[in-house]
């Protein structure tokens, strides 16, 4: 069984801190970071907590709803324990 996880990428100069990606993430793995872009907007960041079941599943919803096309997800395939042998 293949498990897909996501890696979030943000185009800093496009983000306008609308928070749609943060508020509508189905797995609630995005939060507002301390980092700001040149316009002073706080950027989203990924916060995974696997022990609590909070992982990015690379659904791509954040990139679909972003009005500025400022965020996208890259799928990262993880090996299952049986594949690591």
Helix and strand topology:
Blueprint lengths: L2 E8 L9 H5 L5 E7 L5 E5 L14 H5 L5 E8 L7
Antiparallel strand pairs: 1-4, 2-3
Number of helical segments with 4 or more residues:
2
Structural class: mainly beta
SSE run? EHEEHE
Strand tally is: 4
Helicity range: 10-25%
Shape: globular
Task: Report strand order across the widest sheet.
Answer: 1-4
Structural domains: how many: 1
Q: Unreliable runs, pLDDT <50, ≥5 residues?
A: none
End-to-end C-alpha gap: 14 Å
CATH class descriptor name: Alpha Beta
Overall radius of gyration: 14 Å
* Average pLDDT taken over every residue: 90
- Going by CATH, the architecture would be 2-Layer Sandwich
Structural description of this entry:
The chain has 85 residues and is mostly beta strands. The chain has helices spanning 20-24, 61-65; strands spanning 3-10, 30-36, 42-46, 71-78. The strands form 2 sheets. A two-stranded antiparallel sheet has the order 1-4. A two-stranded antiparallel sheet has the order 2-3.
Give a quick precis of the structure:
The protein is mainly beta and 85 residues long. The chain has one domain (3-78): Alpha-Beta Plaits (2-Layer Sandwich). The protein is 12% helix and 33% strand.
From the structure above, extract its key features.
4 strands, globular, mainly beta, 2 helices, two-stranded antiparallel ribbon, 85 residues, Alpha-Beta Plaits, two-stranded antiparallel sheet
